[in-house]
Amino acid sequence: METEKKDIDKRLLILMAIAGGVVVANIYYIQPLLGEIATYYQVSTSSVGIVATLTQLGYACGLFFLLPAADLCNRKKLISITLLLCVVSLICMVVSGTFMMTAAICFCVGFTSMVPQLLIPLGAQLSLPENTGKNLGTIISGMLIGILASRVFSGLVGGYFGWKTVYLIAAILIAILALILYKVLPDTKANVDMSYGDSLRSLLNLPRKYPVIVRASINSAIVFGIFSAFWTTLTLYLGEGPFGYNASTIGLFGLFGIAGAVFAPMAGKMSDKKGTNFTLLFHMIVIGVSFICFAVWGKSVVGIIIGVILLDYGVQCCNVANQARIQTISGSERNRIAAIFMVSTFLGGSIGSYAGTMIYGSYEWVGFVTLGATMIMIALLLHILQYKKTK
Fold it and tell me: Residue 192 gets which letter from DSSP?
């Protein structure tokens, strides 16, 4: 007699959320340190943005080449090996001696920090269907808290002990995490019987097979592009002009983003009850309101703080809703679907980081706010048109 499937163990769910936050932090340590790195290597503020862009581009490449492999092998082993390679990349950041070398290693750090996106499909696989949105919300909430806390951590540590110390501590944390996950994660079998090459080629067919992947990927790319553009630009904005903050002070602004992130599980519950289309619409409007705060009160610390809370809350909840609508499509293709979605998301993020610094360099804060407001209006318009078409 077949035993009834149980929902994922809560302790394992919390551990996966913590693990996601610790690993994904590697991508965002760089942002509050841009000014420090520019000074260290004597490069311009417009040029230093490339290290943040390459980190996210590396992450997108890691997703493209490693996530499809998760459908073909034991995910526990794949996660462990990737984390060990991540430790090596972080140590290389510590010993790097030139700006070009650091930029190249940033790509490797991003490439090997894609483990959280292996945990999300695994969490969906271990969850009961009626709890998928809520459980994914918990894991993704841990990731966003890690993203935001990373800025606080790197800003404080980098400000007092130098930016390379941040990556030394990160290497130690990832090494410890690799051992813990190897002991507690369940062994999983391959979802499908195909070659790695066939798995990669199938990525081209999945968007045609499941059009919702295209809709979710486009929406996520735009929303995450806004998010990345904001945090990259905010570092430069707060470091000059009327503020003149150092890296440690800039990093503290991540604390206010965490306030918005803790409500992410609510988006999962909203997606489970009212559907992902409503959840996305509501939280894109929240992002739009954040840009009203930046436009009207952008020269005030209080205005920026309110905008940060609203922006990070809205982005986080849009991510949860998009994940919820793609992770229930197909169990056997779950990781490849996630690969398409996350590659699109982080390509949007890398473009957003680059566009944010370039626009800010030419048009300052007003230019960035105009860019962000335009992007969220485009996302809203596309969502409304797609919703009417599918309905």
Answer: S
Of 255, 231, 181, the residue nearest 360 (C-alpha): 231
Closest CA to 172 of 63, 59, 94, 258: 94
Among 26, 20, 28, which residue's Cα sits nearest to residue 349?
Answer: 28
Full-model pTM: 0.73
pLDDT tens digits, one per residue of 204-242? 888 888 888 889 999 999 999 998 889 888 888 888 767
231 vs 20, 50, 141, 209, 347, CA distance in Å? 20, 14, 18, 35, 16
Q: Alpha helices of the chain — where are they, by DSSP H? A: 10-28, 34-41, 45-66, 75-95, 99-112, 116-126, 132-161, 163-184, 196-202, 206-209, 211-238, 247-251, 254-261, 264-274, 276-297, 301-326, 334-390
37-47: buried (b, 16+ CB within 10 Å) or exposed (e) per residue?
Answer: bbeebeeebee
DSSP class of residue 194 equals -
What radius of gyration do the chain's Cα atoms show? 20
Maximum distance among all alpha carbons in the chain?
A: 70
